[in-house]
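New to this. Please check this fold:
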Amino acid sequence: MTGLVRLAFAAFFFFYFAYIGLMSPYSSLYFASRGFGAIEIAVLMSMFQITRIMGPFAWGWLADVRRDRLGIMRLTSLAACIIFAGIFFLEDYLALLIWMFLLNTVISSLMPLGEAATVHALHRENGFDQRYGRLRLWGSIGFITMVLGAGAWFEYFGIESFPWFGMAALIIMTLLTKALREPAIEVTEHAVVKFSHVLKNTHLQWFLSANFWMIFAHASFYVFYSLYLDQMGYSKGEIGLFWMLGVLAEVIFFYYQSHFFGRFSTKNILLAAYLIAILRFVLMAYWPNLIALIIAQLMHAATFGANHSASIKMLQTWFSGPLQARGQALHTTVSYGIGGTVGGLCAGWVWEHWAPEHVFGVAALSSLIGYLCMRQVKENK
Protein backbone atom coordinates (compact mmCIF):
# COMPACT_ATOMS: atom_id res chain seq x y z
CA MET A 1 0.00 0.00 0.00
CA THR A 2 1.69 3.21 -1.19
CA GLY A 3 1.66 6.46 0.71
CA LEU A 4 -0.97 7.94 -1.64
CA VAL A 5 -3.25 4.93 -1.22
CA ARG A 6 -2.88 5.10 2.58
CA LEU A 7 -3.78 8.79 2.38
CA ALA A 8 -6.86 7.93 0.31
CA PHE A 9 -8.04 5.33 2.86
CA ALA A 10 -7.41 7.75 5.74
CA ALA A 11 -9.40 10.47 3.94
CA PHE A 12 -12.20 7.98 3.18
CA PHE A 13 -12.46 7.06 6.86
CA PHE A 14 -12.40 10.77 7.79
CA PHE A 15 -15.34 11.73 5.59
CA TYR A 16 -17.34 8.56 6.21
CA PHE A 17 -17.26 9.14 9.95
CA ALA A 18 -17.74 12.88 9.46
CA TYR A 19 -21.03 11.89 7.81
CA ILE A 20 -21.82 9.61 10.79
CA GLY A 21 -20.87 12.48 13.12
CA LEU A 22 -23.54 14.56 11.40
CA MET A 23 -26.31 11.96 11.19
CA SER A 24 -26.05 10.35 14.62
CA PRO A 25 -26.39 13.45 16.82
CA TYR A 26 -28.17 15.91 14.54
CA SER A 27 -30.61 14.09 12.25
CA SER A 28 -33.15 13.73 15.08
CA LEU A 29 -32.93 17.48 15.72
CA TYR A 30 -33.45 18.13 12.01
CA PHE A 31 -36.52 15.89 11.90
CA ALA A 32 -37.88 17.63 15.00
CA SER A 33 -37.41 21.01 13.30
CA ARG A 34 -39.65 19.73 10.51
CA GLY A 35 -42.46 19.12 12.98
CA PHE A 36 -42.28 15.37 13.54
CA GLY A 37 -43.07 13.91 16.97
CA ALA A 38 -40.94 11.73 19.22
CA ILE A 39 -42.40 8.41 18.06
CA GLU A 40 -42.10 9.38 14.40
CA ILE A 41 -38.48 10.41 14.93
CA ALA A 42 -37.73 7.18 16.82
CA VAL A 43 -39.02 5.12 13.88
CA LEU A 44 -36.97 7.19 11.42
CA MET A 45 -33.83 6.77 13.55
CA SER A 46 -34.39 3.01 13.86
CA MET A 47 -33.52 2.70 10.16
CA PHE A 48 -29.84 3.18 11.07
CA GLN A 49 -29.80 -0.16 12.93
CA ILE A 50 -32.48 -2.10 11.05
CA THR A 51 -30.66 -1.73 7.73
CA ARG A 52 -27.49 -3.08 9.37
CA ILE A 53 -29.16 -6.44 9.96
CA MET A 54 -29.33 -7.58 6.32
CA GLY A 55 -27.68 -4.81 4.29
CA PRO A 56 -23.97 -5.38 5.10
CA PHE A 57 -24.10 -9.13 4.47
CA ALA A 58 -25.97 -8.73 1.17
CA TRP A 59 -23.40 -6.21 -0.07
CA GLY A 60 -20.54 -8.35 1.25
CA TRP A 61 -21.86 -11.41 -0.58
CA LEU A 62 -22.14 -9.42 -3.81
CA ALA A 63 -18.63 -7.98 -3.42
CA ASP A 64 -17.09 -11.40 -2.74
CA VAL A 65 -18.92 -13.07 -5.64
CA ARG A 66 -17.82 -10.30 -8.01
CA ARG A 67 -14.40 -10.05 -6.32
CA ASP A 68 -14.72 -6.27 -6.60
CA ARG A 69 -15.16 -4.62 -3.20
CA LEU A 70 -14.05 -1.19 -4.37
CA GLY A 71 -16.37 -1.30 -7.38
CA ILE A 72 -19.35 -1.97 -5.10
CA MET A 73 -18.23 0.87 -2.80
CA ARG A 74 -18.04 3.32 -5.71
CA LEU A 75 -21.51 2.29 -6.86
CA THR A 76 -23.17 2.49 -3.43
CA SER A 77 -21.50 5.77 -2.45
CA LEU A 78 -22.75 7.33 -5.69
CA ALA A 79 -26.22 5.90 -5.00
CA ALA A 80 -26.05 7.39 -1.49
CA CYS A 81 -25.40 10.85 -2.96
CA ILE A 82 -28.35 10.54 -5.31
CA ILE A 83 -30.70 9.25 -2.61
CA PHE A 84 -29.54 11.81 -0.04
CA ALA A 85 -30.40 14.62 -2.46
CA GLY A 86 -34.03 13.62 -2.03
CA ILE A 87 -34.07 15.29 1.39
CA PHE A 88 -34.29 18.66 -0.34
CA PHE A 89 -37.61 17.70 -1.93
CA LEU A 90 -39.39 15.25 0.41
CA GLU A 91 -42.07 16.56 2.76
CA ASP A 92 -44.30 13.58 3.54
CA TYR A 93 -43.39 11.43 6.56
CA LEU A 94 -43.82 8.12 4.74
CA ALA A 95 -41.58 9.37 1.94
CA LEU A 96 -38.89 10.30 4.48
CA LEU A 97 -39.19 6.89 6.14
CA ILE A 98 -38.62 5.17 2.79
CA TRP A 99 -35.77 7.62 2.13
CA MET A 100 -34.09 6.68 5.44
CA PHE A 101 -34.44 2.98 4.66
CA LEU A 102 -32.97 3.25 1.16
CA LEU A 103 -30.20 5.65 2.20
CA ASN A 104 -29.01 3.52 5.10
CA THR A 105 -29.28 0.31 3.09
CA VAL A 106 -26.71 1.58 0.58
CA ILE A 107 -24.61 3.31 3.26
CA SER A 108 -24.44 0.03 5.20
CA SER A 109 -22.15 -1.37 2.50
CA LEU A 110 -19.37 1.16 2.89
CA MET A 111 -17.75 0.41 6.23
CA PRO A 112 -17.68 -3.43 6.00
CA LEU A 113 -16.30 -3.28 2.45
CA GLY A 114 -13.92 -0.43 3.31
CA GLU A 115 -12.63 -2.34 6.33
CA ALA A 116 -12.25 -5.53 4.28
CA ALA A 117 -10.32 -3.72 1.55
CA THR A 118 -8.07 -2.03 4.12
CA VAL A 119 -7.36 -5.25 6.00
CA HIS A 120 -6.70 -7.17 2.76
CA ALA A 121 -4.22 -4.55 1.56
CA LEU A 122 -2.44 -4.37 4.92
CA HIS A 123 -2.23 -8.12 5.42
CA ARG A 124 -0.62 -8.55 2.01
CA GLU A 125 2.28 -6.46 3.32
CA ASN A 126 2.06 -7.69 6.96
CA GLY A 127 1.23 -4.15 8.03
CA PHE A 128 -2.01 -4.56 10.00
CA ASP A 129 -0.55 -4.08 13.49
CA GLN A 130 1.50 -1.06 12.47
CA ARG A 131 -0.84 0.76 10.11
CA TYR A 132 -4.49 -0.16 10.64
CA GLY A 133 -4.97 1.95 13.76
CA ARG A 134 -3.22 4.94 12.20
CA LEU A 135 -5.59 4.79 9.23
CA ARG A 136 -8.71 4.12 11.29
CA LEU A 137 -8.04 6.95 13.77
CA TRP A 138 -8.82 9.44 10.99
CA GLY A 139 -12.40 8.23 11.16
CA SER A 140 -12.53 9.24 14.81
CA ILE A 141 -10.99 12.61 13.97
CA GLY A 142 -13.59 13.10 11.23
CA PHE A 143 -16.36 12.29 13.69
CA ILE A 144 -15.05 14.85 16.22
CA THR A 145 -14.57 17.49 13.53
CA MET A 146 -18.14 17.19 12.26
CA VAL A 147 -19.75 16.99 15.70
CA LEU A 148 -17.97 20.13 16.90
CA GLY A 149 -18.01 22.05 13.60
CA ALA A 150 -21.60 21.32 12.60
CA GLY A 151 -22.77 21.79 16.18
CA ALA A 152 -21.25 25.28 16.33
CA TRP A 153 -22.72 26.15 12.93
CA PHE A 154 -26.20 24.93 13.89
CA GLU A 155 -26.00 26.86 17.17
CA TYR A 156 -25.54 30.13 15.33
CA PHE A 157 -27.28 29.59 11.98
CA GLY A 158 -29.90 26.95 12.68
CA ILE A 159 -30.42 23.29 11.85
CA GLU A 160 -31.96 24.06 8.44
CA SER A 161 -28.53 23.79 6.79
CA PHE A 162 -28.20 20.15 7.97
CA PRO A 163 -28.79 18.64 4.48
CA TRP A 164 -25.94 20.64 2.92
CA PHE A 165 -23.42 19.22 5.42
CA GLY A 166 -24.55 15.67 4.66
CA MET A 167 -24.48 16.24 0.90
CA ALA A 168 -20.96 17.68 1.03
CA ALA A 169 -19.57 14.82 3.13
CA LEU A 170 -21.07 12.17 0.84
CA ILE A 171 -19.87 13.84 -2.38
CA ILE A 172 -16.29 14.13 -1.10
CA MET A 173 -16.37 10.53 0.18
CA THR A 174 -17.66 9.30 -3.20
CA LEU A 175 -14.85 11.11 -5.03
CA LEU A 176 -12.31 9.55 -2.65
CA THR A 177 -13.46 6.00 -3.46
CA LYS A 178 -11.95 6.56 -6.92
CA ALA A 179 -8.50 6.82 -5.33
CA LEU A 180 -8.78 3.64 -3.22
CA ARG A 181 -6.75 0.61 -4.28
CA GLU A 182 -6.29 -2.94 -3.01
CA PRO A 183 -4.42 -6.02 -4.28
CA ALA A 184 -6.29 -8.48 -6.47
CA ILE A 185 -8.49 -10.85 -4.48
CA GLU A 186 -7.23 -14.41 -4.71
CA VAL A 187 -9.61 -16.86 -6.39
CA THR A 188 -10.29 -19.78 -4.06
CA GLU A 189 -12.16 -22.81 -5.39
CA HIS A 190 -15.48 -23.62 -3.68
CA ALA A 191 -15.46 -20.34 -1.74
CA VAL A 192 -19.23 -20.46 -1.22
CA VAL A 193 -19.04 -23.97 0.24
CA LYS A 194 -16.16 -22.97 2.45
CA PHE A 195 -18.08 -19.96 3.80
CA SER A 196 -20.99 -22.16 4.86
CA HIS A 197 -18.47 -24.55 6.42
CA VAL A 198 -16.78 -21.74 8.33
CA LEU A 199 -20.12 -20.66 9.83
CA LYS A 200 -20.28 -24.03 11.62
CA ASN A 201 -17.02 -23.35 13.44
CA THR A 202 -17.76 -23.30 17.17
CA HIS A 203 -15.03 -20.77 17.95
CA LEU A 204 -16.43 -18.36 15.36
CA GLN A 205 -19.89 -18.74 16.88
CA TRP A 206 -18.53 -17.90 20.35
CA PHE A 207 -16.64 -14.93 18.88
CA LEU A 208 -19.75 -13.53 17.18
CA SER A 209 -21.77 -14.11 20.35
CA ALA A 210 -19.21 -12.13 22.36
CA ASN A 211 -19.35 -9.26 19.88
CA PHE A 212 -23.14 -9.30 19.97
CA TRP A 213 -23.08 -8.77 23.76
CA MET A 214 -20.42 -6.06 23.59
CA ILE A 215 -22.40 -3.95 21.11
CA PHE A 216 -25.61 -4.78 23.00
CA ALA A 217 -23.92 -3.09 25.99
CA HIS A 218 -22.70 -0.11 24.00
CA ALA A 219 -26.16 0.52 22.52
CA SER A 220 -27.15 1.74 25.99
CA PHE A 221 -24.25 4.16 25.91
CA TYR A 222 -24.91 5.50 22.41
CA VAL A 223 -28.65 5.94 22.93
CA PHE A 224 -28.92 7.16 26.52
CA TYR A 225 -25.56 8.57 27.64
CA SER A 226 -26.36 12.18 26.73
CA LEU A 227 -29.81 11.99 28.34
CA TYR A 228 -28.27 10.38 31.44
CA LEU A 229 -25.78 13.23 31.82
CA ASP A 230 -28.52 15.78 31.15
CA GLN A 231 -30.60 14.34 33.99
CA MET A 232 -27.61 14.72 36.30
CA GLY A 233 -27.49 18.43 35.48
CA TYR A 234 -24.61 18.66 33.01
CA SER A 235 -24.90 21.33 30.33
CA LYS A 236 -24.93 20.50 26.61
CA GLY A 237 -21.41 21.89 26.31
CA GLU A 238 -20.19 19.66 29.13
CA ILE A 239 -21.94 16.65 27.58
CA GLY A 240 -20.15 17.39 24.32
CA LEU A 241 -16.82 17.44 26.15
CA PHE A 242 -17.53 14.02 27.68
CA TRP A 243 -18.21 12.62 24.21
CA MET A 244 -15.06 14.22 22.81
CA LEU A 245 -12.98 12.74 25.64
CA GLY A 246 -14.12 9.24 24.71
CA VAL A 247 -13.34 9.72 21.02
CA LEU A 248 -9.91 11.19 21.79
CA ALA A 249 -9.18 8.14 23.96
CA GLU A 250 -9.93 5.80 21.06
CA VAL A 251 -7.78 7.93 18.72
CA ILE A 252 -4.82 7.53 21.08
CA PHE A 253 -5.30 3.77 21.18
CA PHE A 254 -5.51 3.52 17.39
CA TYR A 255 -2.27 5.48 17.08
CA TYR A 256 -0.37 3.24 19.51
CA GLN A 257 -2.13 -0.06 18.81
CA SER A 258 1.00 -1.72 17.39
CA HIS A 259 2.59 -1.55 20.85
CA PHE A 260 -0.30 -3.58 22.29
CA PHE A 261 -0.48 -6.09 19.43
CA GLY A 262 3.28 -6.56 19.68
CA ARG A 263 3.08 -7.48 23.37
CA PHE A 264 -0.24 -9.26 23.85
CA SER A 265 -2.24 -11.85 21.95
CA THR A 266 -5.38 -10.75 20.15
CA LYS A 267 -7.56 -12.85 22.46
CA ASN A 268 -6.03 -11.36 25.61
CA ILE A 269 -6.59 -7.82 24.27
CA LEU A 270 -10.25 -8.70 23.70
CA LEU A 271 -10.64 -10.28 27.13
CA ALA A 272 -9.15 -7.18 28.75
CA ALA A 273 -11.54 -4.97 26.75
CA TYR A 274 -14.54 -6.93 28.07
CA LEU A 275 -13.34 -6.71 31.67
CA ILE A 276 -12.77 -2.98 31.32
CA ALA A 277 -16.28 -2.65 29.81
CA ILE A 278 -17.77 -4.30 32.91
CA LEU A 279 -15.96 -1.81 35.16
CA ARG A 280 -16.81 1.12 32.90
CA PHE A 281 -20.55 0.52 32.93
CA VAL A 282 -20.62 -0.22 36.66
CA LEU A 283 -18.93 3.13 37.31
CA MET A 284 -21.40 4.92 35.05
CA ALA A 285 -24.38 3.23 36.67
CA TYR A 286 -23.63 3.29 40.39
CA TRP A 287 -20.77 5.75 41.03
CA PRO A 288 -21.52 8.57 38.55
CA ASN A 289 -19.38 11.30 40.12
CA LEU A 290 -17.26 13.54 37.91
CA ILE A 291 -13.98 11.64 38.39
CA ALA A 292 -15.62 8.27 37.75
CA LEU A 293 -17.34 9.56 34.62
CA ILE A 294 -14.06 10.92 33.26
CA ILE A 295 -12.33 7.59 33.94
CA ALA A 296 -15.24 5.75 32.31
CA GLN A 297 -14.87 7.84 29.15
CA LEU A 298 -11.13 7.18 29.01
CA MET A 299 -12.00 3.48 29.08
CA HIS A 300 -13.58 3.97 25.64
CA ALA A 301 -10.02 3.43 24.33
CA ALA A 302 -10.38 -0.21 25.38
CA THR A 303 -14.10 -0.93 25.09
CA PHE A 304 -14.32 0.47 21.56
CA GLY A 305 -10.82 1.14 20.21
CA ALA A 306 -9.05 -2.04 21.36
CA ASN A 307 -12.14 -4.19 20.96
CA HIS A 308 -12.72 -2.98 17.39
CA SER A 309 -9.13 -3.40 16.16
CA ALA A 310 -8.65 -6.79 17.84
CA SER A 311 -12.00 -8.04 16.53
CA ILE A 312 -11.10 -7.02 12.98
CA LYS A 313 -7.78 -8.82 13.34
CA MET A 314 -9.32 -11.97 14.84
CA LEU A 315 -11.81 -12.16 11.98
CA GLN A 316 -8.86 -13.04 9.75
CA THR A 317 -8.64 -16.35 11.62
CA TRP A 318 -11.72 -17.51 9.70
CA PHE A 319 -12.21 -15.10 6.79
CA SER A 320 -9.66 -14.06 4.18
CA GLY A 321 -9.39 -13.60 0.42
CA PRO A 322 -12.75 -14.08 -1.31
CA LEU A 323 -14.50 -14.65 2.03
CA GLN A 324 -13.26 -11.45 3.62
CA ALA A 325 -16.07 -9.04 2.75
CA ARG A 326 -18.76 -11.51 3.83
CA GLY A 327 -16.92 -12.17 7.07
CA GLN A 328 -16.62 -8.46 7.81
CA ALA A 329 -20.28 -7.95 6.89
CA LEU A 330 -21.36 -10.88 9.06
CA HIS A 331 -19.54 -9.31 12.00
CA THR A 332 -21.28 -5.97 11.36
CA THR A 333 -24.69 -7.64 11.02
CA VAL A 334 -24.46 -9.72 14.20
CA SER A 335 -22.88 -7.02 16.39
CA TYR A 336 -23.97 -3.58 15.20
CA GLY A 337 -27.10 -4.70 13.36
CA ILE A 338 -28.75 -7.25 15.65
CA GLY A 339 -26.80 -6.44 18.84
CA GLY A 340 -27.24 -2.70 18.44
CA THR A 341 -30.94 -2.96 17.63
CA VAL A 342 -31.84 -5.38 20.43
CA GLY A 343 -29.58 -3.58 22.90
CA GLY A 344 -31.16 -0.22 22.15
CA LEU A 345 -34.69 -1.60 22.52
CA CYS A 346 -33.86 -3.32 25.81
CA ALA A 347 -32.16 -0.19 27.12
CA GLY A 348 -35.29 1.83 26.32
CA TRP A 349 -37.45 -0.65 28.22
CA VAL A 350 -35.13 -0.61 31.26
CA TRP A 351 -34.99 3.20 31.21
CA GLU A 352 -38.77 3.41 31.10
CA HIS A 353 -39.70 0.66 33.57
CA TRP A 354 -36.78 0.46 36.00
CA ALA A 355 -34.41 3.39 36.41
CA PRO A 356 -31.83 5.20 34.22
CA GLU A 357 -28.83 3.89 36.14
CA HIS A 358 -29.93 0.28 35.60
CA VAL A 359 -29.56 0.80 31.83
CA PHE A 360 -25.79 0.80 32.38
CA GLY A 361 -26.06 -1.93 35.01
CA VAL A 362 -27.57 -4.18 32.33
CA ALA A 363 -24.75 -3.06 29.99
CA ALA A 364 -22.21 -4.25 32.58
CA LEU A 365 -24.02 -7.59 32.80
CA SER A 366 -24.05 -8.04 29.02
CA SER A 367 -20.32 -7.20 28.95
CA LEU A 368 -19.78 -10.00 31.48
CA ILE A 369 -21.70 -12.43 29.26
CA GLY A 370 -19.55 -11.29 26.33
CA TYR A 371 -16.40 -11.92 28.37
CA LEU A 372 -17.54 -15.47 29.17
CA CYS A 373 -18.25 -16.08 25.48
CA MET A 374 -14.83 -14.74 24.43
CA ARG A 375 -13.09 -17.11 26.86
CA GLN A 376 -14.42 -19.99 24.74
CA VAL A 377 -12.74 -18.70 21.56
CA LYS A 378 -9.59 -20.46 20.38
CA GLU A 379 -6.49 -18.29 20.63
CA ASN A 380 -5.73 -16.34 17.45
CA LYS A 381 -2.20 -17.29 16.46
User: Anything to note?
Assistant: The mean pLDDT is 88. The first helix runs from residue 3 to 33. The two ends are 24 Å apart (CA to CA).
